[in-house]
Design a protein that fits this description.
Rossmann fold; 2 domains; 35% helix; globular
């Protein structure tokens, strides 16, 4: 059996699709399983021990036919038996069809009419069901193929010696008895981001008690330099961490704090730090951390979750009303009262 998983973006969603891949491969070791994704986040899948092949689309594929044509030809040569659309958007549905797979499995009643490209649907559950974990949603197509969902787990590509060396340089020396906390303040949605002045206050409060590492992407560098400048004991490394190095750095932390974002789901996938996730526009029951020992915080206002990139009411009270003391108390409890 040749299976193609289609999940083109974004980072956190790709990561939450990995348990589907693992459940399939460990249920059916002889199956050939491939993944189609867009290039910016491909490094989180490159070298994955359960992937037989990774197909990469340039993010600008819709503006230039060359890469799309090359990818289409490569997919057709594989003669896939099944394509699993985990994304449920027009672009992912289209590529499921273009793969040539005679069976195209996904969810019904998707956004952008993506289900029109499928010939098997596993459920009509709403895409943004706030009470149904996204990982479980992604496992439904694997169940349709007979995979054992109990085999689902996070598994990342092993870190190379070069990646481990880069993480060593990034983190620097740390006292063996000193806990390390990763702060990941940013997500792609403004409606998921706790105010930056709160992050600064949290970092300042935690720095005397633990090693505080601030992480983020290149697009966050200017804000990070302005917000976390001149804070003693706070190591700001925003914009200097390729995904494999970021994963290795997070794996060496005791606690990671952040919103519903790619870096936080990456931390979850490493299996090492406990996660304290702050929720605004999205649902902690849908996108909260997988596994034991983690915690989520949300105000649970009547307008939550709205699943909107920008607060439709204009006040973002779901995050502004979540005070620093609440997050600080939860962090201290998780860091010092839950064992090594």
């Amino acid at each position: 059996m040749r299976v193609l998983i289609v999940r083109l973006s974004a980072l956190g969603d790709i990561i939450q699709g990995i348990p589907c891949l693992v459940a399939l491969k460990e249920s059916f070791p002889d199956w050939q399983i491939s993944w189609l994704t867009e290039a910016p986040h491909a490094t989180v899948l490159e070298g994955h021990p359960h992937l037989d092949r990774l197909f990469l689309l340039d993010r600008a594929w819709r503006r230039g036919a060359a890469n799309a044509l090359e990818t289409w030809r490569a997919l057709r040569r594989e003669r896939f038996d099944v394509a699993l659309d985990l994304q449920g958007l027009f672009k992912s549905g289209l590529w499921s069809l273009l793969s040539g797979a005679p069976r195209r499995i996904g969810h019904g009643k998707t956004r952008e009419l993506a289900h029109w490209f499928l010939n098997e649907t596993v459920s009509d559950r709403p895409t943004f069901d706030p009470n149904y974990p996204l990982i479980e949603r992604y496992l439904e197509p694997a169940r349709r193929l007979g995979a054992d969902p109990s085999k689902a787990r996070y598994l990342l590509p092993p870190a190379s010696e070069s990646v481990r060396a880069q993480a060593d340089r990034l983190l620097g020396p740390s006292a063996p008895s000193r806990r390390r906390i990763a702060l990941c303040p940013w997500s792609a949605w403004p409606s998921k981001n706790w105010p930056l002045e709160n992050w600064r206050a949290l970092a300042a409060a935690l720095a005397p008690e633990a090693s505080v590492l601030v992480l983020g992407g290149p697009e966050n560098r200017a804000e990070a330099e302005a917000v976390f400048a001149r804070l003693d004991g706070v190591d700001q490394r925003v914009g200097s961490t390729p995904l494999p190095v970021l994963a290795e750095a997070l794996r060496r932390c005791h606690l990671a704090i952040g919103p519903d974002s790619g870096p936080m789901h990456l931390a979850n996938a490493t299996g090492r730090p406990r996660l304290l996730m702050i929720f605004g526009a999205t649902s902690r029951r849908r996108s909260g951390p997988w596994g034991e020992g983690h915690r989520t915080l949300a105000r649970e206002l009547d307008c939550q979750p709205c699943f909107r990139r920008i607060c439709p009411l204009g006040h973002q009270a779901c995050l502004r009303e979540l005070d620093v003391k609440t997050v600080l108390d939860a962090a201290r409890e998780m860091l010092f009262n839950a064992g090594p």
